[in-house]
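BUG: 3D viewer hangs when loading the predicted structure for this chain

Environment: internal workstation, default settings.
Expected: structure renders.
Actual: progress bar stalls at 90%.

Input used:
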Amino acid sequence: MTFTDIIYTARDGVATITINRPESLNALRTTTVQELIEAFRRADEDPTIGVAVLTGAGDRAFCVGADQKELVSRLDARGWRAVAQQLRDLFATMRGIGIPIIAAVNGWCIGGGHELHCFADITIADEGARFGQVGAKVGGAPIYLTRLLPKIVGEKKAREIMMLCEQYTAQEALQMGLINRIAPSGTLDDAVEKMCQDLLGKSPTVLRVLKTAIGAENVLGDDVIPMIVESLASFFGSDEQREATTAFAEKREPNYNKFRRA
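Structure tokens produced before the viewer hung:
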């Protein structure tokens, strides 16, 4: 597969997967998600690879989530179901492959980008990184994170992150257990390389079993997720969702008053 939205490199046991859309702050479109799935599978199937690194091109953003122009603003019920399935495939792939994934976060890590780093095994962030969810504000919905985030930071903090849509510094993210380590400005690549070497010095069989055991609870399972996906189908393409995406495009606060009364 020839990639257009990502850069894939494999060297000395490390597969580096870079979202390469810096002009859009590495926002995710359909092609990006498909290519990420393929890249993680490629890394897992390569017997020379022991660890994967996920990062974003440029120094402004790791990833700011779904591309509003290509994805969210154009979704209707059918499109939402397709996007939800595609994202499930991506997150299931990340949790399912046998090698550890390090998210190397530079700059903004928002929305779907925030989900990406949560589904990685370990997160190292530049000291200037910023984290947060925006779905409830801009007409998206981090449905898969509702199952995973409480396991990472606890239920109360997870509710705060997803409902209030605030942003958090790298230091705040570290304190709540959202990330693993902070790299001083300009040293992120070195910190990631050191962790890669540490992981490559561990038993690949043991790492695979540990990853499988930690992820044994299927947060993407069919007991709840299909119901959540379907419950939002009528939201996408509705006046309420259009108000959210229009407000985002116009750089103003959305007005949800009439929808709240309804």
